[in-house]
Amino acid sequence: IFLIAFLGGLFSNKTYSPHFAMPVFMHSHAPGGLPPSIPFANIVNFFTRENRLEKVADIGADPNNVPPSFTLPDTDGLVRISLTTKEVVSEVAPGIFFNYWTFDKQVPGPFLRIRQNDTVELTLTNDISSMHHHNIDLHAVTGPGGGAAVTHVGPGETKSFTWKALQPGLYVYHCAMPNVSTHNSHGQYGLILVEPEGGLPPVNKEFYLMQGELYTAGSLGKKGLVAFDSKALLDGQPNYVTFNGKIEGEPRMSLNVGDRVRFYVGNGGVNLISSFHIIGEIFDTVYPNASIGGAMEYNTQTAQVLPGGASIIEVTFDVPGNYLIVDHALARMNKGAWAVVEVKGPENPEIFKSMDAETKEMEKMSH
Questions:
Q1: Strands across the sheet containing 137-138
Q2: What's the start-to-end Cα distance of the chain, in Å?
Q3: Residues whose CB falls within 8 Å of the CB of residue 357, separated by 6 or more in sequence, listed in order
Q4: What per-residue confidence (pLDDT) applies to 237?
Q5: Going by C-beta distance under 8 Å and a sequence separation of 6 or more, which residues neighbour residue 114?
Q6: Can you name the residues that pair with 341 across neighbouring β-strands?
Q7: Pairing relation of β-strands 253-256 and 260-269?
Q8: Looking at residue 359, what is its pLDDT?
Q9: Taking the CA of residue 99 as centre, how many other CA atoms within 13 Å lie in the half-sphere pointing to its CB?
Q10: What residues of the chain score a pLDDT lower than 70?
């Protein structure tokens, strides 16, 4: 009886890979048949081949890199976009390294910008150094898998497809290779803006930010090369929640008092809803769920950004200073979910001023 109970306990406590409960056609697969859920066999595989992976100095996409509003198509009428999937190693924070899976060696991938009714030819290449197969699902695409069904590329392969941008909006793109959640939580996501034919209203500045989750083995702040933790992924407990792939060091967003700013905000997921908030500002205009043409919100304090979703947020900064961007589920700040906007220019005492003792005394004397 004891032996049967012991064996039964072992079996009932067996840990299955993340694809266990998924549809069969979505089960994980990779060269050699090893699932990219990072069980022990894949950890060994990674460390035996880790030296092949490029070490990227800065994985975080520059939030200033937003392409101009309109790009002419080629002479044959096609707008051509090329992306490369590549697995690299980079720092989450100083001394903490992670194996990121990327589009064009950055997290998030490049900000893509087209117009409604453009016909796009998208080419996806998987770098020869990659250890896994990849593809791309663009939420802006109407067609099987958003393009994922026809862009399954092994290491060293390239595939292309064409599609027509039917509806304006700000859309997420991501790798949809099984296991999808594993690929996304390694950093394989980005945003594509499909502008309406007349474009969006002009602003002074545009920034690109995506929240993402990193599921790493060990405790928060563990130094060295940290492995992916599939159990933490399934439990929805990331060690790190970041804007643009890593914990921010020096602020990278800067503007002037009076600038009207548009933030293109996405959520690469895979588990958490983002409560996007700027401490010390009120959003003038929010395009909920990044809908262009739908009802908009005005004078909003916090914008909800769903996993695999986006929002467009416009705000005018009237007072100089450093403004903290956060996910207002504030414990996530402790995991890295913050960024800084520097606003430069003259003080605006009609809107905001300090009233310390010295200031009050000077005001008395002036009266």
A1: 112-115, 189-195, 169-174, 137-138
A2: 93
A3: none
A4: 96
A5: 71, 79, 81, 120, 165, 192, 193, 194, 195
A6: 253, 323
A7: unpaired
A8: 61
A9: 26
A10: 6-51, 357-367
